[in-house]
């Protein structure tokens, strides 16, 4: 049997840059782009290239009101909100990051308001994990998810349409035009930036702990 190779599948370049320090002979960092479809394709390619397990890694929004910015979410199950498909996470793959519990819900679009979140049943929400889980299920290899919270259940996100590209990069001029048109969004952008900083500080140590001596 060959050595274990874990693919860390993340959505955006900012997450990829954080995770690069964990790369090694048994760890590959894969950036997929935002969304379940791109995540599934990236995971499928990683598996074809030799990955024997995959962890969906990155940021998430809280559905559980007790979660705070920077909290690490290690779900026991990932559920696709569009199809209803549910995927069990391998608790041994993420054990170092914490006990697997709760449900991570994957949606097709950003869930940006408390009202939208209240319609989802789960612990946290993201846009990619179900895609990675689906590729792993089809290949018969272990899957887990490790996510860090950027926005709380009661937070309202700024309108990011046209401002953030599919790889998570902010288009500066689009952002400026949006703020001129909607100056009230400034507070929401500041809150999101604070949440991203807290999530960054928590995410890499959690993933490193899950990988153990492999990282």
CATH class equals: Alpha Beta
Query: How many strands, what sense, and barrel or not for the largest sheet?
Result: 9 strands, mixed
- Separation of termini? 20 Å
Strand content: 15-25%
Annotation field: number of helices: 6
Element order, helices and strands?
Answer: EHEHEEEEEHEHEHH
Overall mean confidence score, pLDDT: 89
Estimated structural class: alpha/beta
Shape: globular
Count of structural domains: 1
CATH H level: which superfamily? Nucleoside phosphorylase domain
Please name the defining characteristics of this protein.
215 residues, nine-stranded mixed sheet, alpha/beta, 6 helices, globular, Rossmann fold
SSE topology sketch:
Elements (H helix, E strand, L loop, with lengths): L5 E5 L2 H7 L7 E5 L4 H13 L4 E10 L9 E2 L3 E4 L5 E3 L14 E4 L7 H5 L5 E3 L2 H11 L3 E9 L20 H10 L4 H26 L4
Parallel strand pairs: 1-2, 1-3, 3-9, 5-7, 7-8
Antiparallel strand pairs: 3-8, 4-9, 5-6
Helix pairs in contact: 2-4
Tell me what the structure shows.
With 215 residues, the protein is an alpha/beta fold. It has one domain: Nucleoside phosphorylase domain (Rossmann fold), CATH 3.40.50.1580. It has 6 helices and 9 strands; from the N terminus they run βαβαβββββαβαβαα. It has helices at 13-19, 36-48, 114-118, 129-139, 172-181, 186-211, and strands at residues 6-10, 27-31, 53-62, 72-73, 77-80, 86-88, 103-106, 124-126, 143-151. Strands 1, 2, 3, 4, 5, 6, 7, 8 and 9 form a 9-stranded mixed beta sheet that branches. β1 (6-10), α1 (13-19) and β2 (27-31) form a beta-alpha-beta unit. α2 (36-48) packs parallel to α4 (129-139). The longest helix has 26 residues, at 186-211. It is globular, with a radius of gyration of 16 Å.
